[in-house]
Amino acid sequence: MSTILDTFIAPPCHDEIETLYRDEHLVLINKPSGLLSLSGKNPQNLDSVHHRLVQIYPGCTLVHRLDFGTSGLMVVARNKAINAALCQQFSQRTVTKVYSALLCGHLENDEGVIDAAIAKDPSLFPLMSICALNGKPARSRYQVVERFYHRQEKGALLPLTRVQLMPETGRTHQLRIHCQLLGHPILGCDLYGVRLLPGTERVPRLMLHASELHFRHPISEAWMNAQNASPF
């Protein structure tokens, strides 16, 4: 049995968490890129979304997480009952999530579905892997918004595709590994292939943003249709 050793130390994040909506039951926030969702076991990784928000909303808990490099919408429960109700919506897949991303290269198709099971492997930590035998089902849809070229410092053109990604399941690193499987990794991804591509070495962040979140308020049952435009 492999032992997981997490040596990652998060650099300081000076960006603030933006509060988009709050009531006595829940809080909707815009998470900055470069901030952990939950504090790590290493005391040097204390700063996180939860660590900051629990100072303001004692007893609050995270319903879901975004990767360290991902920015965008998160819903935070202000008590255990609300957390349970929201988690049920996520587990029943009645929550709709839409992400904005920049992918390396030009996708051939305007839309499509990636259906590939994802597995944890402690020997590869923190990487996940595509594994039909031992993986959990994972399904993502994508839709192309635009294809364009980004001119770099020395004049070279980097082909990019702006897409909307709609994960139908919520596996760790799902969108990143599914885009890699497509052959078009997310720009700025340090785990799944992109750093090997010429012209991507100086990208300041992971170009992945949670731009839409649709769910029912657990008390009023009104639809919460949160939208937050991509910063890139």
UniProtKB/TrEMBL annotation:
CDD domains: PseudoU_synth_RluA_like. InterPro entries: PsdUridine_synth_cat_dom_sf, PsdUridine_synth_RluA-like_CS, PsdUridine_synth_RsuA/RluA, RluA_PseudoU_synthase. Residues 25-180 form the Pseudouridine synthase RsuA/RluA-like domain. Gene3D superfamilies: Pseudouridine synthase. Transmembrane segments: none annotated. It comes from the Bacteria. This is RluA family pseudouridine synthase. The lineage of its organism: Bacteria, Pseudomonadati, Pseudomonadota, Gammaproteobacteria, Enterobacterales.
